């Protein structure tokens, strides 16, 4: 329950700021702490993964900064989430297993073959590109001071882009893997 609630609260955060219901720093901080607490409860009160830590600590850190520096700092919440996920996914590219490989192996309950490892590494790079783009756009909109466009992007467009990435990957997974396999076969025949 806490996980779903934290997702809903995080998704609604841009709209709550835009509608002005949380213009007081104390209310903005409370809302962000509520997201963090729901996420923490959803993780079983243990931050066992880097993703849990990022998704739990980012709203808490922004909440503290809001209390210290004012409500406008709350606009940086989407930036911090994107940068945290970029750091997580990017760091995994230097490790033995990429972030997407770890997720795929958990879902499938087995280790991936060589092709699967290469594919998930490529997909992790795609997500790193998205997180970079998302952080840059969110930062630009925050600095512009246009709360309407900040809300539209962070509350709607960024979620649609995530959905497009998920659906596009699912639709293109088999053709891309077949193409990678053909390329691998050609290279081994040369």
Structure description:
- The chain is built from 7 helices and no strands.
- With 190 residues, it is mainly α.
- The protein has one domain (2-189).
Helical proportion, percent range: over 70%
Distance between the termini: 55 Å
User: What form results from the Cα inertia axes?
Assistant: elongated
- Cα-atom Rg, whole angstroms? 19 Å
Largest β-sheet summary = none
Q: Which range does the strand content fall in?
A: under 5%
| Helix/strand/pairing category | mainly alpha
The number of helical segments is 7
Overall number of structural domains: 1
Residue-averaged pLDDT: 86
H-E order: HHHHHHH
DSSP, total strands = 0
In short:
This protein is mostly helical. The protein has seven helices and no strands.
Features:
mainly alpha, 7 helices, 190 residues, single chain
How do the helices and strands line up, and which of them pair or pack?
Layout lengths: L1 H17 L6 H18 L7 H20 L7 H16 L6 H10 L5 H31 L2 H43 L1
Helix pairs in contact: 1-2, 1-7, 2-3, 3-4, 4-6, 5-6, 6-7
């Amino acid at each position: 329950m806490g996980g779903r609630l934290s997702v809903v609260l995080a998704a609604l955060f841009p709209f709550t700021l835009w509608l002005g219901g949380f213009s007081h720093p104390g209310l903005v901080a409370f809302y962000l702490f509520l997201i963090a607490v729901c996420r923490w409860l959803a993780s079983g009160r243990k931050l066992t993964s880097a993703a849990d830590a990022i998704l739990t600590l980012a709203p808490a850190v922004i909440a503290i900064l809001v209390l210290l520096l004012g409500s406008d700092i709350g606009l940086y919440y989407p930036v911090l989430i994107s940068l945290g996920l970029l750091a997580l996914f990017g760091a995994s590219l230097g490790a033995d297993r990429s972030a997407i490989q770890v997720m795929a192996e958990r879902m499938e309950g087995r280790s991936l073959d060589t092709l699967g490892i290469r594919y998930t590494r490529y997909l992790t790079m795609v997500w790193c590109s998205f997180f970079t783009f998302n952080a840059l756009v969110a930062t630009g909109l925050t600095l512009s001071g246009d709360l309407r466009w900040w809300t539209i992007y962070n509350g709607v467009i960024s979620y649609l882009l995530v959905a497009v990435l998920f659906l596009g990957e699912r639709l293109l997974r088999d053709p891309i893997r077949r193409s990678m396999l053909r390329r691998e076969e050609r290279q081994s025949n040369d």
